[in-house]
Write a structure and sequence with these properties.
heterodimer; A: 263 residues; mainly alpha; 72% helix; B: 273 residues; alpha/beta; 6-stranded mixed beta sheet; 4-stranded antiparallel beta sheet; disordered N terminus
Chain lengths: 263, 273
C-alpha cells in the first residue's frame, strides 16, 4: 500500500526510481541525439565536421606558433570541454522542456536529467571518434594509461550528474539561471586551459589552478595524450564528486515536492 | 456499468487531502485573496501567493468503483487526477493508494515527430512503464488498431494530425492497470475512428478494476460510472452513488446558468436605461 503524505520528501525516491529506469533514459537520449540528423546526408558525421572545424580554427589562431603538436592538445581540449559545457548549460530548463511528459505520465522527473546526460555523452562519444586520428598522427604511445579515460569519465560524469540535479532544480525555480549559465560557461571557455597552457605565465597558472574545470579537463584529456593526470587532479575531482553529488541531491530533494508548480 | 462488483476493499483513501500550487514569481493583484473567480482559490501564504487547487478532501473508494469527477473549469478535476497519479505530491493531508496506476491524460506520449511510428511505439511504451518484451508483443495489435499499415515505418512528421493521434491513442490505451485515471475522454481521429476509439476506451475502463474519470460530458459519466464526485473551487461538494449526486449537480448547474443569464439580462437593462 502506497501512502503519500504532505510531509514526505520525494527527492531520494525520485532519484532512485529514475536511475533504475536506465533502459528508458538511454533510449530517449539515443533518439534525442539521432533524430536531429534524420534526413541529413552525413548524419552524425556533422558533429565530427563541426568540431573539427572548431579545432582547426582555434589551432590556427592560438596554437600554430606552438607547433603542430599543440593540435592534439587543443583537439582533445575542445571535444572534452564540449561534454562539460553542454551538460551544464542544458540543465537550466530541462524540466520545462519536458513539461508535458512530466504532467501527463507518472514517472520520476530525475529521468529527464539522466536523459539529457545520456544524449550529451553520446554526442561526445561521436565527436571523440576523431581522437584516434589525432593520437595516431601525433604518435601517442599505446600504453595502458589511455585506458584511464574510462574510470576518469565515470568520475567526471558523477560530478556533472551531481551538478546537473542542483542546476536543474534551481533553473526550474529561477528561469534567469539559463542566461547566467550561458554567460558563465562562455566565459569559462576562455578561463579554462582548453586551447592555452599555463606555461610560465603566473596569471594563467593562477587561473588554471583555481578553476575546477581545469581538473575535469585534465582527467579526460591527459590519458588520451598518453599522460597520467596529476594526483592533485584526482584528489580534487574526488572531493568535487562528493561535494557536487551531495549538494546537488540536497538541492533537488529540497525542491522536488514543489518543483512541479514552478515548471 | 461495471461487471465487477465492489467488494468493500478500500483501494484509495484521502484524508484532508490538499494541494497548493505556488505562484512564486507571478504577480497577483492585491484584492485577489479568496476570489471566487473560476479556478482554485488564490491564497496568500506569508509573502507568496498560491492556488489552493484541492482543499481538504476526504473520501474512500472501494475496489471496483467507477468514479466520475465533475465540476466547472478549474474545480480541481485534473489536479485531483494528477495527485492520485503521483505526479503532484499533496501539500496537506494524506493519500493512500493500493494497486498499479495508469493515466490517460494526453493523446500522445512521446512527442518527437522525427521518429517512425514503430520507434514511437517502443519509446512511448517504455515511458508508460511497459517492458521491452511486452511492447514487442503489443506492437502488432497497436499497429493494426491504428490502421497506419505502410505508414508505420515512416516518421511521424509525415502523418496528418489525425493519424498521429490515432497512433498515440492506440499506444496509450494498450495498458491494463489496476487503477485507471482518465482526464476528459480524448477524442481521436475521424468519425469512423471515433467510434472505434470509444469502444477501446470503454474496454480499457471495463478491464481496469477501479476507474476515475473526469469529464464535462455527463453522458459519458452516466454510461461508465457508478459513483460521482462533485468538485467546486477545489472543495468537495458531494460524493456518493451517481443516482444521488447527479440530480443535485444538474440542478445546481442549471441554477447557476439561470442566475448568470439573469445577471447578464440585468446588466443589459442597466446599460440600456
Amino acid at each position: 500500500m502506497a501512502s503519500r503524505k504532505a510531509s514526505q520528501s520525494l527527492g531520494l525516491l525520485d532519484l532512485q526510481a529514475g536511475l533504475s529506469r536506465w533502459r528508458l533514459w538511454l533510449t530517449l537520449g539515443y533518439f534525442d541525439f539521432i533524430t536531429a540528423f534524420r534526413r541529413t546526408l552525413l548524419g552524425p558525421i556533422w558533429q565530427i565536421a563541426t568540431v573539427t572545424a572548431w579545432i582547426g580554427g582555434l589551432w590556427l589562431i592560438f596554437g600554430s606558433e606552438r607547433g603542430a603538436s599543440s593540435l592534439l592538445y587543443i583537439g582533445l581540449g575542445v571535444i572534452n570541454w564540449g561534454l562539460i559545457q553542454s551538460i551544464i548549460t542544458s540543465m537550466s530548463n530541462v524540466f520545462r522542456v519536458n513539461a508535458s511528459l512530466i504532467m501527463n505520465v507518472p514517472n520520476p522527473i530525475s529521468l529527464y536529467v539522466f536523459r539529457k546526460i545520456a544524449e550529451q555523452t553520446l554526442r561526445w562519444l561521436v565527436q571523440l571518434s576523431i581522437a584516434p586520428v589525432l593520437m595516431i598522427a601525433f604518435a601517442v604511445p599505446l600504453t595502458p594509461v589511455i585506458l584511464l579515460i574510462i574510470p576518469n569519465l565515470v568520475i567526471v560524469l558523477i560530478i556533472l550528474t551531481g551538478a546537473s540535479f542542483g542546476l536543474a532544480a534551481l533553473g526550474t525555480r529561477l528561469p534567469a539561471l539559463r542566461f547566467a549559465l550561458d554567460a558563465v560557461m562562455r566565459l569559462m571557455f576562455f578561463m579554462t586551459p582548453i586551447f592555452w597552457t599555463p606555461g610560465d605565465n603566473p596569471l594563467r597558472t593562477l587561473i588554471a589552478q583555481w578553476n575546477p574545470f581545469s581538473y575535469l579537463l585534465e582527467l579526460l584529456r591527459n590519458p588520451l595524450m598518453g599522460e597520467l593526470p596529476s594526483s592533485e587532479a584526482y584528489l580534487l575531482s574526488l572531493a568535487m564528486a562528493v561535494g557536487a553529488l551531495g549538494l546537488g541531491i540536497a538541492i533537488f530533494s529540497y525542491c522536488r515536492n514543489r518543483m512541479l508548480s514552478w515548471i | 456499468m461495471s461487471k465487477k462488483t465492489a467488494n468493500g476493499e478500500i483501494v484509495v483513501r484521502a484524508e484532508e487531502l490538499s494541494l497548493d500550487l505556488s505562484l512564486i514569481g507571478d504577480r497577483v493583484s492585491a484584492g485577489a485573496e479568496g476570489s471566487t473567480a473560476v479556478g482554485g482559490r488564490l491564497m496568500k501564504q506569508g509573502r507568496d501567493w498560491a492556488i489552493r487547487a484541492l482543499d481538504g478532501l476526504n473520501f474512500e473508494v472501494a475496489k471496483g468503483s467507477r468514479v466520475g469527477i465533475v465540476g466547472r473549469n478549474g474545480a480541481g478535476k485534473s489536479s485531483l487526477l494528477r495527485t492520485l497519479a503521483g505526479i503532484y505530491l499533496p501539500t496537506g493531508g494524506m493519500l493512500t493508494i493500493e494497486g498499479s496506476i495508469s493515466t490517460l491524460f494526453a493523446n500522445r506520449v512521446f512527442n518527437n515527430a522525427q521518429v517512425t511510428g514503430r520507434e514511437s511505439i517502443i519509446v512511448s511504451g517504455l515511458l508508460l512503464g511497459l517492458g521491452y518484451r511486452e511492447i514487442q508483443s503489443l506492437a502488432p495489435e497497436i499497429i493494426e488498431f491504428s490502421e497506419l499499415e505502410d505508414y508505420i515505418d515512416l516518421p511521424i512528421r509525415t502523418y496528418s494530425a489525425g493519424m498521429a493521434t490515432r497512433l498515440g491513442f492506440a499506444i496509450a490505451t494498450s495498458i491494463r492497470p489496476d487503477i485507471l485515471l482518465i482526464d476528459e475522454v480524448f477524442g481521436a481521429g475521424d468519425r469512423s475512428f471515433q467510434q472505434k476509439a470509444r469502444e477501446r476506451v470503454d474496454s480499457v475502463m471495463q478491464e481496469a478494476s477501479t476507474l476515475f474519470l473526469a469529464s464535462q460530458s455527463l453522458g459519458v459519466i452516466e454510461r461508465m460510472c457508478d459513483h460521482l464526485m462533485w468538485l467546486d473551487h477545489g472543495s468537495m461538494r458531494a460524493f456518493g452513488p451517481i443516482g444521488e449526486v447527479m440530480p443535485a449537480f444538474i440542478e445546481a448547474d442549471a441554477q447557476e446558468a439561470k442566475a448568470k443569464t439573469e445577471r447578464a439580462a440585468k446588466r443589459k437593462e442597466q446599460q440600456e436605461t
